[in-house]
Design a protein that fits this description.
By secondary structure, the chain is mainly alpha-helical. It has helices at 12-36, 38-45, 49-65, 67-77, 79-96, 103-117, 120-131, 137-166, 168-189, 202-211, 226-230, 233-254, 256-263, 268-298, 302-324, 330-346, 348-359, 363-392, 396-412.
């Protein structure tokens, strides 16, 4: 990100990025908690792996189904209100997970947890539309998503220790409190437009307004009809490639920990360490891609800045998944899964940057719709993996399916057209 030479302080938009980084980090700690608590939950409720897969997918279904309306809410009401409400809501349902008493209650609470979390990344996209200059957008989205991977990575070794010390129910309550604290400070400090915030240097305010996509229209944006939304070829391509990306990524969030533990006969702590490695690779992939997106954009290659990082990422994802098949050593298997996740996460910065390009003042709704499709892929992973293990006797079919989807995701990027946007739909 480019520093302002005449600004005596750290630019305030960096604090916006820091706040959304922390939100993304916490989001994924909360998501991974149930995966790391799988053992005690299965023992207490006497659940099978297939039932646990449905519990994981209940989050993804709730998260997916509420993406578009949550993104629309962020566009209409602003990221300040949307993200504060979302953080309170998902934190509440994180804590309520501790009150579940059987499969049905746990399934229901996790569905509501996913639904309440749905607008988080669309809300961050809406904040980026107003606060982040175009030449910094790729890195900012890379930072946001790297935080999610770092949160999940930190959770893999740390949450088992916390669960062992406090029990899984008290661990969920602690995480609830952390989300409430974030929501309080976000509401107190953030404003939806940099022109509304006190203490912002005039030079930075003018720089943001001059270099962001477009100032939010006075009176807000006109409604974006569903007919316009779902007749956009660009959006369908974004939805398809994001389905493929999330199919690869959600495995690391849901089944990677139990997979490496069971396949390679690891202890609980050792499995957490190994499961952390691909997530760290994913964080690196996000940052690498974000830097590449911005570097190409600043050279006047706006379309290539979205297309090239995404296609490279999908290629690496396909190679990594294929090479992980049949590995007998945990280190080699995790290396190739790390390559796959590095690649899959390279697709996020260009995809979300393109959705903000595409949506303009409708960035929340457009990016939320893409994220809806991606999380239907997540839901499919959560359910499909245990069944494919039973039917095929191993993970080979699952990994090859992920590779085929990755190739399809790369091909989708050949047909995007940034000239067809929703930005004209303003009041």
């Amino acid at each position: 990100m480019s520093l302002l030479s005449d600004a005596p302080k750290i630019p305030r938009r960096y604090f916006v990025v820091t706040a959304t980084f922390l939100l993304s980090f916490l989001l994924y700690v909360d998501r991974v908690c149930i995966s790391t608590a799988r053992g005690p939950i299965l023992a207490e409720f006497k659940l099978s792996d297939a039932q646990f897969g449905w519990i994981l997918s209940s989050f993804a279904f709730g998260y997916a189904l509420f993406q578009t309306p949550a993104g629309d809410f962020a566009d209409r009401r602003g990221a300040r209100r949307a993200l504060a409400i979302i953080a309170v809501g998902w934190s509440l349902f994180t804590g309520l997970t501790a009150l579940a008493w059987n499969f049905v209650s746990l399934f229901t609470v996790r569905f509501l947890f996913g639904a309440s979390e749905a607008g988080a990344f669309p809300g961050m996209a809406r904040a980026a539309y107003s606060w982040i200059p175009m030449g910094e957008r790729g890195l900012v989205k890379g930072i946001n998503f790297s935080a999610s991977r770092l949160g999940a990575a930190a959770a893999m070794p740390l949450l088992p220790s916390m669960i062992g010390a406090l029990g899984w129910k008290k661990a969920f309550v602690v995480l609830m409190a952390a989300g409430m604290i974030w929501a309080f400070f976000w509401w107190r400090w953030f404003r939806d437009d940099p022109r509304e915030i006190r203490g912002l240097a005039t030079a930075e305010r003018d720089f943001i307004v001059a270099h962001r996509q477009a100032p939010p229209p006075i009176g807000g944006a006109a409604a974006l009809p569903l007919a316009s939304l779902f007749t956009s070829l660009n959006l369908w391509l974004m939805m398809g490639q994001y389905f493929a990306s999330n199919f690869v990524f959600f495995f690391s969030l849901s089944w990677l920990f139990p997979y490496v533990q069971k396949t390679y006969n690891l202890s609980y702590p050792a499995a957490g360490i190994w499961a952390m490695v691909p997530l760290l690779a994913g964080a690196t992939g996000n940052l690498t891609s974000g830097l590449l997106v911005d570097a190409l954009y600043r050279r006047g290659q706006s379309r290539l800045s979205r297309r090239l990082p995404a296609m490279l990422g999908f290629g690496l994802a396909a190679i990594g998944l294929a090479m992980s098949v049949g590995q007998t050593q945990v280190g080699v298997a995790v290396f190739w899964l790390s390559v796959a996740l590095f690649g899959a996460d390279m697709t996020l910065s260009p995809a979300w940057s393109f959705c903000i390009d595409l949506g303009g003042p409708h960035a929340g709704k457009v990016s939320g719709t893409m994220n809806m499709a991606g999380n239907l892929g997540s839901a499919l992973v959560a359910v499909a993996f245990p069944y494919l293990l039973d039917w095929s006797g191993g993970p080979t079919a699952f990994f090859y399916l992920g590779g085929v989807l990755s190739i399809g995701g790369a091909l989708a990027w050949l047909f995007i057209n940034p000239a067809r946007s929703f930005g004209h739909l303003t009041s």
